[in-house]
Amino acid sequence: MLGALGAGVLACFIWLLVLRFFGGLLTFFTIIAVEGVLAGFAWYTYTMWQTKLAAYNVALGNGVATDALKYDRDTALGLFITCTVLASVFLLMIIALRKRIRIAVKIIKEASRAIGAMPMIILFPLTTFVSILVLVAYYLGIAAYIATTPDVTNVSLLGVNATIAYIKYFQWYHLFGFLWTLAWLTGINQTTLAGAIASWYWTMDKKQVPSFAVTKSFARTIRYHLGSIALGSFLIAVTQLIRVILVYLQRHLAQANNRVAKIIFACLQCCFACLEKFIKFINKNAYIMISITGDSFCTAARTATELLVRNAFRLIAVDFVAGFLVFLSKAAVSVGIAFGLYALLQYTNAQGLTQTQFIGAVCILVWVACWMIVSGFFGVYRMAIDTIFLCFCEDCERNDGSDEKPYYMSPDLAALTSVKPQGAPQIATVPVKTAKMTQVKKS
Hints:
This protein is mainly alpha-helical. Helix content is about 75%, strand content about 5%. Helix 1 packs across helix 10 (about 310-350), helix 4 (about 125-145) packs antiparallel against helix 5 (about 170-200) and helix 10 packs antiparallel against helix 11. Keywords: Glycoprotein, Membrane, Transmembrane, Transmembrane helix. This is Protein PNS1.
């Protein structure tokens, strides 16, 4: 099992190398495969609808048509229409966004180059993972102390005796602190990764990447941006705490058998779940912009949001292509490792080399562990893609490819923009300082 997990780590590095050189081909193959699957489902549901329709017409002619046959016919027709609409809409999206999909492919390849230039960036999330483990252990320990404390407790503070009633309600305070700190650690991880990737992008000569980029980005994050990250993580923690309170109230009201209350709480859960995802999206892009410009959280969030709104169609293409490619990569590596372990154990059992019991359970456990490892690897890759995309959008708006304002993007990516580069210098320089980028030196 440990060997399989080690093979999963090695497979992640190999897969990232494959994406660096064959990312474009794999992305276009993925898009074509998705369209083929949707078209296949449409054809299958069409044949199923024809079969159900023929069966219903025969039964109708014999006078034995039933509501069940009619229901099957209508269901098959609905599935056929749905699959056809999805396949058609996806095909139209590919045609309409073909240029932006090409930009997405180039950005994915740029992210692969950035990670290839800083391979140690893959290991940085391990520090966040260890910190989260320590935080969870601390939370569980203090929660156990609070849970086993009497409701009324006499304490002595600075020589003054006091009585604390209902101390168990401090569980909510402790839970909020846990959620806030968890989001804060995640924000530090995202800002550090974004800062390292941004330092690679805003270097004119990509062969002269700043040394110890990840370490320097982490130092800048700790020195300048902890307050901004604390504000963003506070918003996430408040939303998550509200969701926990709603779940708590739902469980206590479950015995009331009030359907109206259940519907209201379900709608509230859905709304706050969407709000949490939206805040996480805003926070991630704000952290990226903080790492680029050094602005405060609110300023960076507004700048990033306005930048994404102005590049909405590019965002749709990049988000869809990158999200699906990362999911496919995670599934391919984790499932491949689990299947390889299953085949190996079957072979060793057949040869009498091992006597492994419950091979399926062992492989499922390895698949879950491998999925977690792969998610950490490709989480860095997805963060790199998002950072490169925001840097690309900012680069397009600040520069025009002339000698005075050269692009910092690669020539392949610059060739896809509306203004072609006009002989950008090939020496390493500091990013162009503008009024909006006054703190670029420390970012």
